[in-house]
Amino acid sequence: MSNEVHESEVTTRLIAIEYQLQQFNQLLSNLSDRIAKSEDNFLLVADVQKYKKLQELLIAENFRESDWETIRVIQAITGEPELGDITPDDMRQFPCDELRVIDNLWKKYSQGRFGFSVQIQIYQSVGGSLETTINQDNKAIERFGEQVGWREDNQWKKCDDLDYTLAAPIGCHPSRWWNSPFGSKMTNYFFNRLLVCSI
User: Fold this and answer.
1) 68, 151: one domain
2) How many domains does the chain have?
3) DSSP per-residue string spanning 178-199
4) Residue 74 and residue 21: Cα distance in Å, rounded?
5) Are 95 and 187 within one domain?
6) What is the β-pairing status of strands 151-152 and 155-156?
7) Do 161 and 74 have their domain in common?
8) Helices 116-125 & 96-109, crossing angle to 10 degrees?
Protein backbone atom coordinates (compact mmCIF):
# COMPACT_ATOMS: atom_id res chain seq x y z
CA MET A 1 0.00 0.00 0.00
CA SER A 2 2.78 2.41 0.90
CA ASN A 3 4.54 1.64 -2.42
CA GLU A 4 1.34 2.47 -4.33
CA VAL A 5 0.99 5.75 -2.42
CA HIS A 6 4.65 6.50 -3.08
CA GLU A 7 4.27 5.79 -6.81
CA SER A 8 1.12 7.91 -6.92
CA GLU A 9 2.96 10.82 -5.28
CA VAL A 10 5.86 10.45 -7.73
CA THR A 11 3.44 10.37 -10.68
CA THR A 12 1.64 13.47 -9.38
CA ARG A 13 4.95 15.28 -8.92
CA LEU A 14 6.11 14.28 -12.40
CA ILE A 15 2.87 15.57 -13.90
CA ALA A 16 3.32 18.83 -11.97
CA ILE A 17 6.94 19.14 -13.15
CA GLU A 18 5.91 18.41 -16.74
CA TYR A 19 3.22 21.12 -16.51
CA GLN A 20 5.76 23.60 -15.10
CA LEU A 21 8.17 22.76 -17.92
CA GLN A 22 5.40 23.42 -20.47
CA GLN A 23 4.68 26.76 -18.81
CA PHE A 24 8.39 27.60 -18.79
CA ASN A 25 8.71 26.69 -22.49
CA GLN A 26 5.71 28.88 -23.29
CA LEU A 27 7.31 31.74 -21.35
CA LEU A 28 10.59 31.25 -23.26
CA SER A 29 8.70 31.21 -26.55
CA ASN A 30 6.92 34.47 -25.65
CA LEU A 31 10.23 35.99 -24.58
CA SER A 32 11.83 34.96 -27.89
CA ASP A 33 8.97 36.61 -29.79
CA ARG A 34 9.38 39.80 -27.75
CA ILE A 35 13.14 39.84 -28.35
CA ALA A 36 12.58 39.37 -32.10
CA LYS A 37 10.09 42.26 -32.15
CA SER A 38 12.52 44.45 -30.20
CA GLU A 39 15.27 43.63 -32.67
CA ASP A 40 12.93 44.62 -35.51
CA ASN A 41 12.24 47.93 -33.77
CA PHE A 42 15.96 48.55 -33.31
CA LEU A 43 16.44 48.02 -37.04
CA LEU A 44 14.09 50.94 -37.65
CA VAL A 45 16.54 53.18 -35.85
CA ALA A 46 19.67 51.50 -37.16
CA ASP A 47 21.32 54.81 -38.00
CA VAL A 48 21.47 56.17 -34.45
CA GLN A 49 24.06 58.77 -35.51
CA LYS A 50 21.44 60.40 -37.72
CA TYR A 51 19.39 61.34 -34.65
CA LYS A 52 22.10 61.70 -32.01
CA LYS A 53 22.63 65.46 -32.37
CA LEU A 54 18.88 66.13 -32.47
CA GLN A 55 18.44 64.11 -29.30
CA GLU A 56 21.27 65.95 -27.54
CA LEU A 57 19.89 69.37 -28.50
CA LEU A 58 16.38 68.39 -27.37
CA ILE A 59 17.67 67.02 -24.05
CA ALA A 60 19.36 70.41 -23.51
CA GLU A 61 16.02 72.10 -24.39
CA ASN A 62 17.81 74.02 -27.12
CA PHE A 63 14.69 74.10 -29.25
CA ARG A 64 16.00 76.75 -31.67
CA GLU A 65 18.95 74.56 -32.72
CA SER A 66 16.76 71.44 -32.54
CA ASP A 67 14.55 73.09 -35.14
CA TRP A 68 17.52 73.56 -37.49
CA GLU A 69 18.75 70.03 -36.78
CA THR A 70 15.30 68.64 -37.69
CA ILE A 71 15.74 70.15 -41.15
CA ARG A 72 19.22 68.60 -41.43
CA VAL A 73 17.81 65.18 -40.46
CA ILE A 74 15.01 65.48 -43.05
CA GLN A 75 17.59 66.50 -45.67
CA ALA A 76 19.72 63.47 -44.77
CA ILE A 77 16.71 61.17 -45.14
CA THR A 78 15.69 62.63 -48.53
CA GLY A 79 19.28 62.94 -49.71
CA GLU A 80 18.69 66.57 -50.69
CA PRO A 81 21.38 69.13 -49.75
CA GLU A 82 18.99 72.08 -49.34
CA LEU A 83 15.51 72.54 -47.87
CA GLY A 84 14.39 74.14 -51.14
CA ASP A 85 15.34 70.97 -53.02
CA ILE A 86 12.80 68.90 -51.06
CA THR A 87 9.60 68.95 -53.10
CA PRO A 88 6.02 68.23 -52.06
CA ASP A 89 6.26 65.04 -54.15
CA ASP A 90 9.26 63.95 -52.04
CA MET A 91 6.88 63.97 -49.07
CA ARG A 92 4.72 61.30 -50.69
CA GLN A 93 7.56 58.79 -50.26
CA PHE A 94 8.93 60.11 -46.97
CA PRO A 95 9.37 57.09 -44.64
CA CYS A 96 6.73 56.91 -41.91
CA ASP A 97 9.19 55.26 -39.51
CA GLU A 98 11.58 58.22 -39.80
CA LEU A 99 8.73 60.64 -39.09
CA ARG A 100 7.88 58.62 -35.98
CA VAL A 101 11.45 58.78 -34.68
CA ILE A 102 11.65 62.57 -35.14
CA ASP A 103 8.22 62.97 -33.58
CA ASN A 104 9.02 60.73 -30.60
CA LEU A 105 12.21 62.67 -29.86
CA TRP A 106 10.42 66.03 -29.94
CA LYS A 107 7.55 64.75 -27.79
CA LYS A 108 9.75 63.06 -25.22
CA TYR A 109 12.04 66.01 -24.58
CA SER A 110 9.36 68.72 -24.70
CA GLN A 111 7.11 67.11 -22.10
CA GLY A 112 4.66 66.23 -24.87
CA ARG A 113 4.26 69.86 -26.02
CA PHE A 114 6.00 69.66 -29.41
CA GLY A 115 6.24 67.21 -32.30
CA PHE A 116 4.52 66.25 -35.54
CA SER A 117 1.84 64.17 -33.79
CA VAL A 118 0.95 67.14 -31.58
CA GLN A 119 0.75 69.35 -34.69
CA ILE A 120 -1.45 66.96 -36.64
CA GLN A 121 -3.87 66.70 -33.70
CA ILE A 122 -4.15 70.49 -33.63
CA TYR A 123 -4.61 70.58 -37.41
CA GLN A 124 -7.47 68.10 -37.12
CA SER A 125 -8.98 70.02 -34.20
CA VAL A 126 -9.35 73.12 -36.42
CA GLY A 127 -11.05 71.17 -39.21
CA GLY A 128 -8.05 69.78 -41.06
CA SER A 129 -8.41 66.36 -42.68
CA LEU A 130 -7.16 64.27 -45.58
CA GLU A 131 -9.78 66.02 -47.70
CA THR A 132 -8.54 69.51 -46.79
CA THR A 133 -4.97 68.50 -47.65
CA ILE A 134 -6.06 67.15 -51.04
CA ASN A 135 -8.13 70.27 -51.72
CA GLN A 136 -5.18 72.49 -50.69
CA ASP A 137 -7.39 74.24 -48.11
CA ASN A 138 -5.30 77.17 -46.90
CA LYS A 139 -7.94 78.30 -44.39
CA ALA A 140 -7.32 75.17 -42.31
CA ILE A 141 -3.59 75.91 -42.42
CA GLU A 142 -4.19 79.50 -41.26
CA ARG A 143 -6.37 78.31 -38.36
CA PHE A 144 -3.63 75.85 -37.44
CA GLY A 145 -1.02 78.64 -37.61
CA GLU A 146 -3.04 80.75 -35.20
CA GLN A 147 -3.32 77.86 -32.74
CA VAL A 148 0.41 77.09 -32.66
CA GLY A 149 1.56 80.72 -32.50
CA TRP A 150 2.81 81.06 -36.07
CA ARG A 151 0.26 83.74 -37.04
CA GLU A 152 -0.61 87.03 -35.41
CA ASP A 153 -2.89 89.80 -36.68
CA ASN A 154 -3.62 87.77 -39.83
CA GLN A 155 0.10 87.65 -40.68
CA TRP A 156 2.61 84.80 -40.60
CA LYS A 157 5.45 85.37 -38.15
CA LYS A 158 9.09 84.90 -39.06
CA CYS A 159 10.63 81.76 -37.55
CA ASP A 160 13.21 83.90 -35.73
CA ASP A 161 10.36 85.65 -33.89
CA LEU A 162 8.87 82.45 -32.46
CA ASP A 163 9.27 81.43 -28.82
CA TYR A 164 11.81 78.62 -28.54
CA THR A 165 11.11 77.72 -24.94
CA LEU A 166 8.65 75.36 -23.27
CA ALA A 167 6.43 78.42 -22.80
CA ALA A 168 5.74 78.44 -26.56
CA PRO A 169 2.22 77.41 -27.61
CA ILE A 170 1.61 73.67 -27.75
CA GLY A 171 2.54 72.38 -31.20
CA CYS A 172 4.75 75.36 -32.05
CA HIS A 173 7.76 73.22 -32.92
CA PRO A 174 9.35 71.92 -35.03
CA SER A 175 8.57 75.03 -37.04
CA ARG A 176 11.33 75.93 -39.52
CA TRP A 177 10.77 72.73 -41.48
CA TRP A 178 7.32 74.01 -42.42
CA ASN A 179 8.82 77.19 -43.91
CA SER A 180 9.35 75.57 -47.31
CA PRO A 181 9.76 77.58 -50.52
CA PHE A 182 6.81 75.54 -51.81
CA GLY A 183 4.56 77.33 -49.27
CA SER A 184 1.11 75.98 -48.50
CA LYS A 185 1.43 73.23 -51.11
CA MET A 186 4.24 71.65 -49.06
CA THR A 187 2.27 72.21 -45.85
CA ASN A 188 -0.74 70.39 -47.27
CA TYR A 189 1.39 67.55 -48.61
CA PHE A 190 3.20 67.19 -45.31
CA PHE A 191 -0.04 67.18 -43.31
CA ASN A 192 -1.29 64.58 -45.76
CA ARG A 193 1.80 62.42 -45.12
CA LEU A 194 1.39 62.71 -41.35
CA LEU A 195 -2.24 61.59 -41.66
CA VAL A 196 -1.42 58.71 -44.04
CA CYS A 197 1.36 57.55 -41.70
CA SER A 198 -0.97 57.82 -38.67
CA ILE A 199 1.59 59.94 -36.82
Assistant:
1) yes
2) 2
3) G--TTHHHHHHHHHHHHHHTT-
4) 50
5) yes
6) antiparallel
7) yes
8) 90
Contacts of 188 (CB under 8 A, 6+ apart): 88, 132, 133, 134, 136, 137, 141
155 phi/psi in degrees, rounded to 5: -125, 145
The 8-class DSSP code of residue 129 comes to: -
Is there a single domain that holds both residue 24 and residue 114? no
Helices (H), 45-153: 48-59, 63-78, 88-92, 96-109, 116-125, 130-134, 138-147
Averages of pLDDT over each 10 residues, the chain, 199 residues? 66 79 77 62 62 95 97 93 90 93 96 97 97 93 97 94 97 94 91 95
pTM of the model: 0.76
Q: Does residue 73 share a domain with residue 170?
A: yes
Contact 39, 45 (CB under 8 A): no
Q: Do 54 and 138 belong to one domain?
A: yes
Residue 23: domain span: 1-44
